[in-house]
Specification:
Bound molecules: adenosine-2'-monophosphate
Shape: globular
Distance between the termini: 26 Å
Number of strands: 10
Strand content: 35-45%
Helix content: 25-40%
CATH topology: Cyclic Phosphodiesterase, Chain: A
Number of helices: 3
Radius of gyration: 16 Å
CATH superfamily: Cyclic phosphodiesterase
Number of domains: 1
Order of helices and strands: EHEEHEEEHEEEE
Oligomer: single chain
């Protein structure tokens, strides 16, 4: 199964992200992320055999996390992959510590993951064109109180992400 670790928004944050996504979609077109799939990826594992999922969960269970506030105040667009996103001007140190703790625990348990550096963002749409100007959008305050192990399920109409398990700060 396809797995990744993520920050998973509550309904209020999800609704605000969905609003940003609609605003950017009006400017960029492309495929807006389904609101139920909006998240920040912390570590992408890719395909994991069912027999190894318990090890993944054990590794995550040993990761310390401190609650933090993440302020998404920067809408942006990357030309190289035609993604429009929501990101923070400042990554809170607690989030940086969570990502390094989590990735360190995975490495220690010899669980493979994509080692590309962490870039804190929520993908709002894919295959969009570059907007002439990035709009100003009301900042989104996200209280980080935990993280989740998420499974990507492929459906005929696209991927659906489902939280398998979550851990609290
Ligand atoms: P993205 O949002 O920046 O596209 C599920 O595929 C999630 O994992 C997506 O949020 C995706 O990031 C992220 N991800 C990170 N590394 C990935 C990789 N190597 N392949 C696919 N998805 C990856």
């Amino acid at each position: 199964m396809r797995l990744f670790f993520a920050l998973w928004p509550d309904d209020a944050v999800r609704a605000e992200l969905a609003r940003w996504s609609r605003e950017l979609h009006a400017l960029c077109g492309g495929r807006a992320t389904h609101p139920e799939n909006l998240h920040v990826t912390l570590a992408f594992l890719g395909s994991v055999e069912e027999a190894h999922v318990a090890e993944v969960e054990r590794a995550a269970g040993g990761v310390a996390m401190q609650a933090a506030s993440l302020v998404l105040d920067r809408p942006g667009y990357w030309k190289h992959n035609r993604i429009a996103w929501a990101g923070p001007s400042l990554v809170p140190p607690e989030l940086a510590a969570l990502v390094s703790g989590l990735r360190g625990a995975l490495a220690k348990s010899r669980i493979a993951f994509d080692t590309k550096p962490f870039v804190s963002h929520v993908t709002l749409l894919r295959d969009g064109r570059e907007p002439r100007a990035i709009p100003e959008l009301a900042p989104i305050e996200w209280r980080l109180a935990g993280f989740a192990l998420v499974q990507s399920v492929t459906l005929p109409r696209g991927s659906r992400y489902e939280v398998r398990r979550s851990w609290s700060a």
